[in-house]
Amino acid sequence: TQLLEQSPQFLSIQEGENLTVYCNSSSVFSSLQWYRQEPGEGPVLLVTVVTGGEVKKLKRLTFQFGDARKDSSLHITAAQPGDTGLYLCAGSLYNQGGKLIFGQGTELSVKP
Amino acid sequence: AAGVIQSPRHLIKEKRETATLKCYPIPRHDTVYWYQQGPGQDPQFLISFYEKMQSDKGSIPDRFSAQQFSDYHSELNMSSLELGDSALYFCASSSPPGDEQYFGPGTRLTVT
Questions:
Q1: Alpha-carbon distance A11 to B112, whole Å?
Q2: N or C terminus: which one in chain B shows less Cβ crowding within 10 Å?
Q3: B105 vs A: CB within 8 A
Q4: Quick one: CA torsion of B105, B46, A24, A110, rounded to 10 degrees?
Q5: Which of B50, B98, B104 shows the shortest C-beta gap to A42?
Q6: Segment-wise mean pLDDT, segments of 10 residues, chain A, 112 residues
Q7: For residues B6 and B32, what is the distance between their CA atoms, to the nearest angstrom?
């Protein structure tokens, strides 16, 4: 059973389209992090959200943490081929020493 | 800025051999996490250390052990290797525990 459900797992879109990736759980997280991972490389941290309802923007990427701290979303506006990659959400539960629980990942392909 | 360093980047071992993976955290980071990522899988937490003491343990086989040294680097020792141990092994560091985790480039272990 996946504690953090990420969807969709695969997404293929055209350049210029918008997209949203979701991470959902029945558990409450103290924080949630979004990573991007290239094949064979380590995950690269994009953003950390820690406050319920928090919204953070990173250029064309918008990250939101749900009010109840059980879910998060990543929205990309006007996707570009350079956005192609694997996006992972990862949450940290309270009093768990900070270990990360990962979602299944979203493999995004943006076609020119 | 300095990042997490892992060595070696690639390792090929035969069944029943042993392997040692090393991780050098970001300077002044006192917490190290180890994750295992199988092909097409999300990273799974193995073990973590804070101030040279084991702080949490996940799905780490008894054949594996790890420690954190006085300079905060960590080593993951793997014995009696099995084919199923073939995976990417990532180290991440943070300060303090529960704060943002930064991942190293990983060690790709192949057991033949």
A1: 34
A2: N
A3: yes
A4: 20
A5: B104
A6: 91 98 96 94 95 96 97 98 97 89 96 96
A7: 12
